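Private note to self, pasted from the team thread so I don't lose it. Backbone tokens:
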């Protein structure tokens, strides 16, 4: 009978066999137990095609880990943002266009329409005190006076002939410098009283104002004025 000569495997072959056995047993163990963790997955090997659609949930993501570079441009829509969640600090102002109403306002200014809305703050005058200027525009001046009575008055002065002015109860279609000041409204009577009055004036150069001024006087000999005017020209 022939004798079969034996030959021991080399050390390299033994080490390679052991490594193969360990690797196969590890994979087999993971498959057998139905649990594969990150140790069984080579880095950067899991791709999007390996994930079932709609399976990644919020609980699978670490807080504050999704960044802007992780989101495709132009894919976030208004339905993805909570109501009132975007604030002024989140918006770059230079990227905003002009709102339609602002464009309309620019056009109105260019056309010579209302340029300024002037609020006349509450102004108090003692009876017989020096009249106070409420507004000026070009040659036109609107002032308030508290005459004896007390009597609250509104007056318009002009430095340009052929102007016009008026209010509640008084009008002058041809107001000259020599006619100034012209009274456009009066509130007289005993005790406390209040009444609003229109106030308007025009100058030949195109300046004009119109609005409403409230007048008040009380038994303490005090007159008060407040209101608003639209200035143009």
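Design output:
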């Amino acid at each position: 009978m022939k004798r079969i000569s034996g030959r021991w495997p080399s050390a390299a072959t033994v080490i390679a066999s052991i490594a193969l056995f360990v690797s196969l047993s590890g994979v087999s163990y993971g498959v057998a137990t139905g649990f594969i963790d990150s140790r069984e997955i080579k880095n950067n090997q899991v791709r999007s095609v390996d994930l079932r659609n709609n399976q990644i949930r919020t609980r699978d993501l670490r807080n504050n880990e999704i960044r802007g570079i992780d989101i495709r441009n132009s894919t976030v829509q208004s339905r993805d943002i909570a109501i009132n969640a975007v604030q002024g600090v989140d918006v770059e102002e230079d990227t905003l266009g002009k709102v339609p109403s602002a464009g309309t306002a620019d056009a109105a200014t260019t056309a010579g329409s209302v340029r300024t809305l002037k609020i006349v703050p509450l102004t108090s005058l003692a009876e017989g005190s020096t009249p106070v200027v409420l507004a000026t525009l070009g040659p036109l001046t609107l002032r308030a006076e508290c005459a004896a009575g007390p009597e609250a008055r509104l007056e318009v002065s002009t430095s340009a002939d052929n102007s016009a002015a008026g209010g509640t109860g008084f009008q002058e279609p041809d107001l000259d410098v020599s006619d100034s000041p012209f009274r456009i409204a009066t509130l007289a009577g005993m005790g406390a009283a209040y009444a609003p009055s229109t106030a308007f004036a025009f100058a030949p150069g195109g300046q004009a104002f119109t609005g409403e001024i409230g007048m008040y006087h009380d038994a303490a000999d005090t007159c008060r004025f407040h209101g608003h005017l639209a200035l143009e020209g």
